[in-house]
Amino acid sequence: MKGGMQNLMKQAQQMQRKMAKLQEELAGLEVEATVGGGMVKAVVNGQKRVVGINIDPEVVDPEDIEMLQDLVVAAVNEGLRMAEEKHQEEMGKIVPAGMMGGLGGMF
Hints:
With 107 residues, the chain is α+β, with helices and mostly antiparallel strands. It has 3 helices and 3 strands, in the order αβββαα.
């Protein structure tokens, strides 16, 4: 029993090291989401933070600010979705699928 506990602790420490490395890697990851035929682009990092917004000047119409606002929101949401998807994909390489249910809120 003692050997099993030591093995479990060793596995937990190994997973913790892998998680720290993954967090570091995700910090450097960036995804780009474009909407409106490329008129608005949002850049989101692996920590799910928006790090850039690019707006094509052609889409800026003082008479239709609502459309621009909608495009920005859509680009940001898509970028966040893409970053989350990549985050989950990378986590799946480290944490066994059965464990994610109990750890999901931690990451």
